[in-house]
Each structure stands twice: as C-alpha cells, then as structure tokens.
Amino acid sequence: MDMYEEVILEHYKNPQNHGKIDQPSADREEYNPLCGDKVRIQLIIKDDKIEDIRFQGRGCAISTASTSLLTQHVKGKTLAEVKKLDKDDIVKLLGVDVNPTRFKCVLLGLKTLKLAIYQYLIDHKKHVEEKEFKVSDA
Amino acid sequence: MEVRDDFPILKRKVNGKTLVYLDNAATTQKPKQVIDKVSEYYKEHNANIHRGIHKLSEEATNEFEETRKKIAKLIGAKEDEVVFTRSTTESLNTLAYSSLRSLGEGDEVVLSVMEHHSNIVPWQMLQEKGVKLNFVDINPDGTLKMEQFEELINKNTKIVSIVHASNVLGTINPIADISKIAHDNNAIMIVDGAQSVPNMKIDVKKLGCDFLAFSGHKMLGPTGVGILYGNNFDNVEPFLRGGEMIREVSLREAKWNDMPWKMEAGTPNIAGVAGFGEAIAYLERTGLSKIRKHETELVKYATKKLEDLVTIYGNADKTGVVSFSMNAHPHDVASLVDSEGIAIRSGHMCAQPLMDRLEVPALSRASFYLYNTKEEIDKLVTALEKVQKVFE
Known about the structure:
The complex is a heterodimer of chains A (138) and B (392).
Chain A: H1 6-13, E1 26-31, E2 38-46, E3 49-56, H2 61-74, H3 79-84, H4 87-94, H5 103-123
Antiparallel strand pairs in A: 1-2, 2-3
Helix pairs in contact in A: 1-2, 2-4, 2-5
Chain B: E1 13-14, E2 17-18, E3 20-21, H1 32-45, H2 55-75, E4 82-85, H3 88-102, E5 108-112, H4 121-124, E6 132-136, H5 147-152, E7 157-163, H6 175-184, E8 188-192, H7 204-207, E9 211-215, E10 226-230, E11 246-249, E12 254-256, H8 270-286, H9 288-306, E13 311-313, E14 321-325, H10 330-338, E15 342-343, E16 345-347, H11 352-358, E17 363-367, H12 374-391
C-alpha cells in the first residue's frame, strides 16, 4: 500500500484550492480516459503569473491529491515555469512510489492546467502550439 | 473445481502474495494444454494455410479447420457459418461496415444502454448515412426493459444488436425473445456473446440469432482470435480484402471465395486458432454447465460476503460478475487490492453509456471463472475491508 501514504490521503480528504473562481482568466475541463473522472481548473493570471488557482471535481485519491498538491505548487509561479513542469515533477511533489498504471491519474491535473494556459495564451493572441503543452505519461 | 494445477500462472506471486486473478471478464488465464498447443504448433506444424501443397501447409490447415469444426459443434452451427476474426470488436465491425453500404436514411438500428463500446461505437458510424440508433433502457435490477423492444422495433428497424450477457452487470438477456420480435419485423438479430459463450452452453438455433460475435481469449484461448457466426453472409461485404478471400483476380476486379473464406482475408492467427481448439476441448471436458454452476455459486457467495461492505450493481440472473462501488474510488480500490496480489478491474469497463445510466463515473469489478475459489473471494473481502478503513 506504498502509494497511499498519509500525505495522499490528507490531500484527498481535504483538497487544497478546491472550489470556484467567479471571473477566471483561464478555465479548462479535462477528463481521465481510464475512468471518465473530470477535473476543472480555473486561473487568475496577472503579468504572466498565476495569482490564484482553483479546481473542481473529485476523482480518485491519486488524481485529487496530485491536483491539490499541484495547485499549491504553482501559485505565484510564472506561466513559463509551469509550462516546464512534467511527470517527474509531479511524482516528486507526491513523494510516494507511483505505480505506472496510475500515471494518467497523477497527471490529470497538470494536463488540465497546461491546456488552460495554452487556451489563455491563444486567447491573448500568442503564437503557441498545442503540442508544446502536452504532458507525456511515458 | 479440480483444475487449478492446469493453470501455471495461478502459482505466481504478485507483490509477495499468491496471485488471486479476478479479472476473467477482461481475459481468462490459459491452461498448460493451450499453451503447449501453441508451442507445439510452432515447433511441429508452422506453415501458411490454404496455400502450400507441402506437408506442413496441410497440417497447419488441418489444425485451423479442426478448430472451426469444434466451434461449429460448440454453438450448434455449420462449419461454413463460422468466420475467424481478431476479436469480438472486429466481428461486430465487420457487420457495421457492411451495413454502412446497405443502410441509409429512414433505417433504424436497435441497441441497448448496457452494450460494450464495441457494440455501440461501430454502429455510430451509420448515423453519417442518416440511420437512426434507438436504445433500450434497463430496470433497476439490471435487466432490459423488454417492453421497449416492442415499442422500438418496427418496419424501419433493419438491425437489432444486443449483448447476451453484460460485462458490467452480468445480466443474461432473453435473446430468444428479442430475436423473435426482431424477426417478426424482418430485422436482422445480432448478438454480442463475448461474456456468454465462455460461461454457458450456447445453441445459436435456440437463441434464434442471425449473427453471434465472441472471442477465444475470454474462454481459455490465446488472444487475437475472434469469431463471427452467421447463418447467411450473402449480403455481408468482406471487411478486409486481399489474399485467401478471392476466387479469381484480374487487374480491375475480383470474385470472392466461398464461405467462410471470403470473410478471412490475409494470414490469420493460425497458432492462436490451434490453441483455441485446445481451449474448447478443455471446456467441453470440464463441462460448460458445471462451469456455469460453479460461477453461480461463487457469485452467490461473493454477494453474501460483500453485501454490507459495498454497493453491488446488477441483481438479476447473471454470469460470474460482481460490479460494485464503495467509499473509495474504483482506481484506488484496484490499486490497493493489487498490493495484496488481487487482480480486479476498475474504470468504466468500456461501457461509459451504462456508467452514465447508473450515474457512477466508474465501478470496480470482480469476475470469476472455473479456477476461482471461495478462499479467493475471502481474500478479496479482507482486502476490501482494509480499503474501507484507509478511506473512512
């Protein structure tokens, strides 16, 4: 039961930054193809920095805890910094042994966050391509 | 049942514990007789079939065609009514792609909300041609609302395609009754038998269906062997075209081979088919009615043991399947019991429309086969009690 350390269960039972932003600068919903779980991430972005972040939707413990930890981690970071985050960063944030069959759960939050940023940049006429914001679970 | 020694994989350890394999509705384990047959095929007989004049080709062809005879006998069909494909999915796609040519505006297809994606997604293609899809709903106990067949099947209905046993609920549907309604309206009756043929004695004449699709790997056979039974392929266009399926080819046209070969283009999974023949022999020696009885006993036992711990979906007469939800997400349940060496399925189980209908994002599923035991169910119950504590 190595994956279900106290930190995971704590964030699952009491997810941080869970809730809604009324007038977000970016808003994106994605789902986990394994189980159909949905997560929605909303952002307030100022001067290319994440000033506030909230997420909605409750998935499995692994995806909920990952998203909760991720929101704490990225608050105050620049979009460029967030764009660089990958699988290894999230696994490190979790600090537990993740079974490879669960990478899709671990990365659901990051995948959604990056696509929210992509959408924001496109809406602000920036020249970016969607593939730059894809998160690999390999 | 005294069969466990025949299954080498049941001796292996997973996470330090003896494997408890309860994901049989996804694929079953293979007895050594089947594994040996595949190995023997490659060691002794390997050649391409229906082509060579040499001895090995003759032997390989025999292995392949012998399995076809066994399948025909198993389901009460004629040999030339049995087509080999890769999977149940490919079998159903064969029929859907063929219908893409023959159906159009004004035609209707009747399915149900408990279908596996493989009996929904291929038919969705027909919507491009203006074909309307109608879906029969379920009752709270997981049975089909039979009265809706009478309402939905009419003179516009060209195809009724229904699962025999649900991969999620386990419900065994009254196919013979549905076939009758379909035929009274001149519609073709197609049955997805992936979860029923492995678990009970099937007779296509009694089912009254026109087509039956199922897979070898869910009944002790190797992966990569699917079957499509059909009582009339005159109007079914070959899905794949190329070698073996032709009688005569010129630069601009071709004439099809006889049944069943016109439906079998390309080199098939010959070793897999040979192995599947051995799987059928194994199941017949054991007795499908005994297997069905054993599974029913296990489901009854598991239901009694799990009742207070989880919510079970589907309470009708069913195959060896127990799908459930509890205080933890199905993926967390599956991960946690996996650490005890227990393999169960979690997720939408390729039935998202059914999950939507049941108003759950996903479920966990334990599914049994002839080698499972009550002791294994006890281990599952103990593991689930631990899961419940972790999440309470």
